[in-house]
Amino acid sequence: MKIGFIGLGNMGNPMARNLLKAGHQLLVYDVIPAAVEKLTTLGAASAPIGQLAGEADLVLTMLPSSPQVREVYLSAGGVLANIRPGIMAVDSSTIDPHTAREVAAVAAKQGNPMVDAPVSGGTGGAEAGTLTFMVGGRAEDFERVKPTLAVMGKNIVHCGPSGNGQVAKLCNNMLLAISMIGVAEAMTLGAALNMDPKTLAGILNTSSGRCWSSDTYNPYPGVLENVPAARGYTGGFGAELMLKDLGLVTEAAKRVKQPVMMGSLAQQLYQQMCLHGEGQKDFSAIIRLYQQR
Amino acid sequence: MKIGFIGLGNMGNPMARNLLKAGHQLLVYDVIPAAVEKLTTLGAASAPIGQLAGEADLVLTMLPSSPQVREVYLSAGGVLANIRPGIMAVDSSTIDPHTAREVAAVAAKQGNPMVDAPVSGGTGGAEAGTLTFMVGGRAEDFERVKPTLAVMGKNIVHCGPSGNGQVAKLCNNMLLAISMIGVAEAMTLGAALNMDPKTLAGILNTSSGRCWSSDTYNPYPGVLENVPAARGYTGGFGAELMLKDLGLVTEAAKRVKQPVMMGSLAQQLYQQMCLHGEGQKDFSAIIRLYQQR
Amino acid sequence: MKIGFIGLGNMGNPMARNLLKAGHQLLVYDVIPAAVEKLTTLGAASAPIGQLAGEADLVLTMLPSSPQVREVYLSAGGVLANIRPGIMAVDSSTIDPHTAREVAAVAAKQGNPMVDAPVSGGTGGAEAGTLTFMVGGRAEDFERVKPTLAVMGKNIVHCGPSGNGQVAKLCNNMLLAISMIGVAEAMTLGAALNMDPKTLAGILNTSSGRCWSSDTYNPYPGVLENVPAARGYTGGFGAELMLKDLGLVTEAAKRVKQPVMMGSLAQQLYQQMCLHGEGQKDFSAIIRLYQQR
Amino acid sequence: MKIGFIGLGNMGNPMARNLLKAGHQLLVYDVIPAAVEKLTTLGAASAPIGQLAGEADLVLTMLPSSPQVREVYLSAGGVLANIRPGIMAVDSSTIDPHTAREVAAVAAKQGNPMVDAPVSGGTGGAEAGTLTFMVGGRAEDFERVKPTLAVMGKNIVHCGPSGNGQVAKLCNNMLLAISMIGVAEAMTLGAALNMDPKTLAGILNTSSGRCWSSDTYNPYPGVLENVPAARGYTGGFGAELMLKDLGLVTEAAKRVKQPVMMGSLAQQLYQQMCLHGEGQKDFSAIIRLYQQR
To answer: pTM for the complete prediction?
Structure first.
């Protein structure tokens, strides 16, 4: 299949490579020429957005945020003005559900099925082709795009109608941030009360406090190997990115007037962490807010 | 063994019954005569605290809070004034770690080993003999008391020196409250954004948001069977009790000057819930704060 | 002077009437015909936006939020496409500072001075002509527009360059929300601890807890007369409007990555209040979250 | 009058000096001999607590916290065991209202009127004799003690029955902490959005955001002279002391099951500040949590 791929950053680049490896033809576009070159040297062809959209059998986008998604899809020279009838569009950006739904509705109206398919799994998962895709759209569109996504990920989950991929991703990441901070508080408090961190983690992990942030990604140094806490909080999922997602989720909550007391506190704590210059660290480094400097 | 058991409430009563069933002799005491009678009709003998402490081969207490623990152990007619040399004391109350350590230190000084051994598992676990005991004390004391506790529970965990049973329990319950509220926010926000709750729970449970509050005790009605959310939030672990534990944990944090931003917000949200007359409901009913009345 | 006035809602209508009373000619526009009629019967002329902008000696707008401001100013048939060179525009809407700055920059580029001039004082102040105008723009533009604004308000304050009127208003309202909730907590806690509310308010008002929310707008019924608390929280500044401002301020904080821990909690508490159906009440009714229902 | 004064720390010492200056006879006691000496060189006599209580015409105490108040009043060699019938006791310590009420009830039962009379105004006010006394007790006891307190302070306020002096002080200080943090957030956000801090403070101080923390004690450097912010946050009211009061107030709220969402967040933010080694600074230095380090 000839796939048009727009957005070749840290995530898009390895995803595109996996599509090439699987034998797909690739038409690529990015605002940064160097990002494009990395893929043309591997056999992809370069094209401006309009031409790319007009030639592709499937359009895939991986963009930083909502304004870029609107621009790339809705502008005069954009995807929807140039895509052929019936061709499908897949947006893997993490954006707010309302924008996702609005853009998909415009696409649907002109006869182009569109799904939102944000990913989790980080750059590591993108390289290895083990991403999770959370897909929002009609069931038949999900089935149609599933094989292509399966080249880049290993869990391809249908989350319901348009926008629900974003909803699932944002709700998950909000809960992730909350439980990570909860683990950070429980671990530092336990240590301050003279409890051995490894023993404490062992108890949490077999009790009702059990969660991914404790048993798989514990932020307290020395509890687990091969996690960011074991290597100075490098690698992993950056705090700035978590803050971006928390900004999206509190914004989405505001639009539907749904309180998110803890989600909002989590956003503020990550904002504090970023203010203090730690935004490039893994998000589990939030535990450092709870430790003496 | 002749066991002295003080405190025969909702938890103590079934625990004492399991000791009787296992063939132990029981000397019991409670301020409420009816509670005592329930056990004497099953073969236990009744005795005032002083006599009980003087005759028992092991003293076990299950009391509502720190002042009662101080009173029962430290007063003139109390346990430590009457217990025989070398006899062990086990306090299964949930109290603050500092009081636990102080009382155990007094006991140790006069030659009586003492461990703190708070439980989790609720009245159901107490009936079934499947409680978890989190034990703080010396390793040899832990080994000595383990067989007796095993009659009442199935996980008997050594958490380190004196007081650490309390620390483990409080840290776990703080994390539990935080993740329960996090799940409540994620689920209600997802629903408000038009996502099917069961689908959302399924995604959280296989992603980084995974936690006990989501996969085992989900607060959103209709997601799981056999949880309080499936029966109007009856049964389970009452919000008032969770609030009590959050009071203990924030107090312990205050003493060591350790911030617990989320733990403290959790305490306040449970305080709100109790103010609004819902304190008798299961603690997962906190989700109702996030739903229109 | 011939003034073009766009946006004739609860605030705009009485403001426009005061301009008429002061002898100004008025060209008015609103999407709701009935709102227009109320003013044409008083002597104002009606005109579509383009014509209004082309004829007016000064354009004044009072719109619900940022998208409307963008639409009214920047669209093809909008103000900036039709306004005469050198004519000044004044936007009295409460919107985010970034949008205010962007629109003013477009205006400035084409030679039209523009200031943001959000108001405080409520519909009462609009009727009485006693509003406060917080003005962002160049000093000379402030001086030029001041006499006109003085017809509608009594405090006309220069807050610095473009956008700063919005910054001042949002920062003030965030602090207002925080101190109102603070007063609500202090008053209900005092009452729960058996202190007479009037005595407590008296002490706060002469101590370091003194604030406008306590000494001028106390939310506890019976403390002050002629405040919303004295009449079932009717009238005043609606909780929904406060929530809107808190949404703007946390959004503005997010853009500059500035933590607002309390501002964010205030937003969530107002979101809770609105969820529970009390959004139409005065914002001081937030105290009801702290009282048994 | 012969006054017995127990507790001669930073506050008690200058208060005692003012009583001497006013011509009272003084019997003093403190656990630190040097503190006693400072006053005996000025003419006070030293005595152990029992003798002091037995000879004094009025007993005044100024102690660090609740346990010391219990010890000094209730122990065998303490005030109440030795005080003469009808002699009055005044406790100026800042402690929790429940302890204040309990101790006063014991005193009342044996025929000794007792009032709680915590102070505000800091060491500066203690030196200058301009403290505020918030007095809880019977009206006739308030009148009786007022002239003596007037030697040390200039506002002597009756807050209602026993314990209400503490309630008033704690509620005020909670509101103070909340509004100080609110001002810190408003000022730093305004600055981050390019507003001049002095201009912003000027607007807040004449608008609905007006409060003591903004108009009298602004935490933003350069806004006011002669405040801690103008001298590196030295002097003033230490963050550790504010944290102590916030601990008392959240504890008092817990006992009556009253939510204090913002009060609790304030406590946590001061706990963060103290964790990061800034507890000795004035409490207005909380603003530094909101500024890049």
So the answer is: 0.94
